[in-house]
Automatic annotation (TrEMBL):
Organism: Bradyrhizobium barranii
SMART domains tied to this protein: Ald_Xan_dh_C (SM01008)
EC number: 1.2.7.4
UniProt-recorded name of the protein: Carbon-monoxide dehydrogenase large subunit
Keywords: Molybdenum, Oxidoreductase
Length: 806
């Protein structure tokens, strides 16, 4: 070894593997405006489609007159439900086992529902065309309030289901009822409540909101009638699933469907499911023989594509006088809109809401969820959360604060008293999940020490005394949340979509010169996969991350995968990547042993190659092994160095975190100020700390928006009153607080690299932290629970209702 020989630290740094703050390689094209999005796709002869949408939330469609529209210059066709019936495409299956109209078939069930699809030579002609279509409606009574959905006199919405008292998830109680899902031990839980020393009960609502990604949903469909092949470019978080759904609906052989998801400007769950625009654009291309593009505008995105949340949770906790929880009972009324189009695994009609026991050692619990139809847009997506986990975390974290208030106990101390202990892992919850690992006490205490929690409580007491004396009009709230998330859907034993197990995949192919390409079944919408996936491979096989190209989103080249949503990429695809890399490494070891003339057991991996044990000078780099794989492999071995892995995880992963929000509220105006927000996350092994921090910042900003004003609101007759960013709160850099981030590391014991996932966590933990801060502030005035969102007006009204404002 001489002075020019790289040190171990230099060799490790050169890889830019796991743990390195590697800059996002994607940003080179994005910051220069060179991204390739769906609306950048321009094919020869391409046409444009747009929808005629209903102004009514509930009405019969008496007549559609397209004669004037067909006379508009540039308009080529008007597609209606009657058109789609000729090819058996008037209805499409949803991911939740329901069926959904593609275009209004006899009636409309929500405002802005798709009624007809106009195809024209350009978007301007299409817009003129939709305005020329005349639709005659017969308005019907709207059903907006989910609590009235199963009343005897409630209007029947889904006439296609009348008399069918059994649905995809069991018996139905009413024509507007979708399912009842229960889990847990009801008798044991009831017994715990019967003998409880202390009980709380509260209706905790998580309002309807929307992912509202920067790029709306869109597609380009191109049918080649000579080959019988359909190519679809689209904003798809799960391209392979879309291909399978289209094959099932359109009866086109799946090998003749090519789905390509180029760069995507945000997804957040909004781009998981199939929308009528995809089907109509495909049909229009088949009919016209030309490519057809559909791009929704912002109002369409907010009012008609999949919403999130809308869960109304009656929550009860039983406890002892000294604050030990003894039972949990929750009933949820879930507003699913006009069709059950929730993007949940098939066996879980309420998603993973049974994580509602949270981070606490409940001896017994019972959960019941009723889903109902209303005259609202359908959906129920995993908006920066894994299948209703955010609702569950909000439910239990608000309930724990309410219990602490009743017991006159500090909410942090109540949580510490009831946390699952480290020695209890793997922990089996009362509602069926097996938590893989955790160290909740350490995370909570680190949060309390870092933020000076005791001093903040002292300051709060002083400010309350000053308020009582009339010396200030501000009240101070401390919002704690401690969440456990369940991500990594999922094990085939309990997770599938449309019968397809929720595994994921990776294919790695190393080239002779020591560079390679890796293809995955995931699809980034801003998560930085091109950066982090290469880092996993770099650490596993010793090839610099810059020498690994990552490719996703093309079903012709990528192995079949279930896509990116619900923080499943790292827990599932990340594992597949590591396992494929280890197959590469295993073959590389055999080649190195052959070249170094030793038994493969005599070799050890050393950062970027193999070294003979006890003879450090006998070394072969992975770059040299790649060359040898194509010219001098051992006798009987196939040339090349590539591997494929399909990873079916044995369990979910369970990231967790401890958050604290410090907020001041002026009771006379309702104006709030987030003075401080601290977020500690434990996502297991950290692949790229810089990208994790970016994910946390983004998720906290969304949590801030949801808790403090973001809402899809309907009036009493079913009109959407928050259909644009003028009314739907979208925080800018001006409103967004400063974020403090921190971490602990508790690796997942069953994941190949110990990673758990982090993308959803800040939304899961952030929302209850904000809401708890507001509620903690108003608890001083005698309030128990104030529903979200906590905008200025609602804060002022709460202060007025509590007598703090004249």
């Amino acid at each position: 070894m001489n002075d020019l020989t790289p040190t171990r630290e230099q060799r490790t740094a050169a890889l830019e593997g796991m743990g390195c703050k590697r800059k996002r390689v994607e940003d080179i094209r994005f910051t220069q405006g060179k991204g390739n999005y769906v609306d950048d796709v321009k094919l020869p002869g391409m046409l444009h489609g747009d929808f005629v949408r209903s102004p009514h939330p509930h009405a019969r469609v008496k007549k559609i007159d397209d004669s004037a529209a067909l006379k508009v210059p540039g308009v080529l066709a008007v597609i209606t439900a009657e058109t789609l019936k000729t090819v058996n495409l008037a209805w499409m299956p949803t991911l939740a086992g329901d069926v959904q109209m593609v275009l209004a078939d006899g009636k409309v069930l929500f405002q802005n529902q798709e009624v007809a699809f106009v195809v024209a030579t350009d978007r301007y002609a299409a817009d003129d065309g939709i305005n020329a279509v005349v639709v005659e409606y017969e308005p019907l009574p709207p059903l907006v309030d989910p609590f009235k959905a199963m009343d005897k006199d409630a209007p029947v919405l889904r006439e296609d289901l009348v008399g069918k008292m059994s649905g995809a998830h069991g018996p139905r109680k009413h024509d507007n009822h979708i399912f009842e899902w229960t889990v847990g031990d009801k008798e044991l839980t009831d017994a715990a409540f019967n003998k409880a020393e202390v009980k709380i009960k509260e209706m905790i609502s998580y309002h309807r909101t929307h992912p509202s990604p920067l790029e709306t949903c869109q597609c380009v469909c191109s049918f080649d009638k000579f080959k019988g092949e359909l190519t679809i470019y689209g904003t798809f978080q799960a391209p392979h699933v879309i291909r399978t759904v289209v094959a099932l609906i359109a009866k086109i052989p799946e090998h003749k469907i090519h789905v390509i998801a180029p760069d995507i400007g945000g997804g957040f769950g909004n781009k998981v499911g199939a929308y009528p625009g995809y089907i109509c654009a495909a049909v229009a291309s088949i009919v016209t023989g030309k490519p057809v593009k559909w791009v929704e505008d912002r109002i369409e995105n907010l009012t008609a594509t999949s919403f999130a949340r809308d869960y109304h949770m009656t929550t009860e906790i039983a406890a002892t006088k000294d604050g030990k929880v003894t039972g949990l009972r929750v009933h949820v009324l879930a507003d699913h809109g006009a069709f059950d189009a929730c993007a949940d695994p098939s066996k879980w009609p309420a998603g993973f809401f049974n994580i509602v026991t949270g981070s606490y050692d409940f001896p017994t619990a019972h959960l019941a969820v009723d889903g109902v139809y209303t005259n609202k847009a359908p959906g129920g997506v995993a908006y920066r959360c894994s299948f209703r986990v955010t609702e569950a975390a909000y439910c239990i974290e608000r309930a724990m604060d309410i219990l602490a208030q009743k017991l006159n106990m500090d909410p942090a101390e109540l949580r510490l008293k009831n946390f699952i202990k480290p020695e209890q892992f793997p922990y089996h919850s009362a509602l069926g999940w097996e938590y893989d690992s955790g160290d909740y006490h350490t995370a909570m205490r680190k949060m309390m020490e870092t933020t000076g929690y005791a001093a903040l409580r002292k300051e709060q007491a002083e400010k309350r005394a000053a308020f009582a004396r009339g010396e200030t009009r501000e009240i101070m709230g401390l919002g704690i949340s401690f969440f456990t998330e369940i991500v990594g859907a999922g094990p085939s034993k309990n997770c599938d979509i449309l019968g397809i197990a929720m595994f994921d995949s990776c294919e790695i192919r190393m080239h002779p010169t020591g560079a390679g390409i890796a293809r995955m079944g995931t699809k980034s919408q801003g998560q930085g996969h091109e950066t982090t996936w290469a880092q996993i491979i770099a650490t596993e096989i010793g090839i610099p991350a810059d020498n690994i190209m990552v490719e996703e989103g093309n079903t012709d080249t990528a192995p079949y995968g279930l896509g990116t949503y619900g923080s499943r990429s790292t827990p599932v695809a990340g594992a597949a990547i590591a396992m494929a890399a280890r197959k590469i490494k295993a073959k590389a070891q055999m080649i190195a042993a052959y070249k170094l003339e030793v038994h493969e057991d005599d070799l050890e991996f050393d950062i970027d190659g193999f070294r003979v044990k006890g003879l450090p000078e006998k070394f072969m780099s992975m770059k040299d092994i790649c060359w040898a794989a194509y010219n001098s492999v051992p006798p009987g071995m196939e040339p090349g160095l590539e591997a494929v892995s399909y990873y079916d995880p044995p369990n979910m992963t369970y990231p967790f975190g401890a958050y604290l929000c410090v907020m001041d509220i002026d009771v006379d105006t309702g104006v709030y100020k987030v003075r401080r927000f601290y977020a500690l996350d434990d996502c297991g092994t950290r692949i790229n700390p810089m990208i994790i921090e970016g994910q946390v910042h983004g998720g906290l900003t969304e949590a801030f928006a949801i808790a403090m004003g973001q809402e899809i609101r309907y009036d009493e007759v079913g009109n959407v009153v928050t259909g644009s960013f003028m009314d739907f709160f979208m925080p800018t850099a001006v409103e967004t607080p400063h974020w403090e981030t921190d971490f602990t590391v508790t690796p997942s014991p069953h994941h190949p690299i110990g990673a758990k996932g982090v993308g959803e966590s800040p939304n899961v933990g952030g929302v209850p932290a904000f809401s708890n801060a507001v509620n903690d502030a108003f608890s001083f005035l005698g309030s128990t629970h104030i529903q979200m969102p906590h905008d200025f007006w609602r804060n002022w009204k709460a202060a007025k209702d509590l007598g703090a404002v004249a």
